[in-house]
Design brief:
With 86 residues, the protein is mainly α. It has one domain. 67% of the residues lie in helices and 0% in strands. It contains four helices and no strands.
């Protein structure tokens, strides 16, 4: 599973991330989108390896209140949905 995720992340574009956000009713500003993209590309292994202890609250200041709450909810949903595979 790890190799599949690694390939997906390596091929992930900023447009892919924006599409995911928009499909989840999250309208990111350019700064939010750029931060999210760079963060995911740099930190995905750490998040996957420590998904049970990852503290999303540390990144609240990088988003509007509305977007952060939506991102936090999406993270929780996806963590539950895919926890058996991680």
């Amino acid at each position: 599973m790890y190799i599949l995720i690694e390939r997906y992340i390596n091929n992930l574009t900023i447009n892919d991330l924006n599409y995911l956000a928009l499909n989840n009713n999250i309208n990111l500003s350019n700064d939010e989108l750029n931060f999210s993209f760079a963060f995911i590309k740099k930190n995905w292994k750490t998040i996957l390896g420590n998904h049970g202890v990852f503290d999303i609250e540390k990144y609240r200041s990088h988003y509007t209140v509305e977007n952060f709450e939506k991102i936090k909810q999406l993270y929780k949903e996806l963590k539950i949905k895919y926890s058996n595979y991680l």
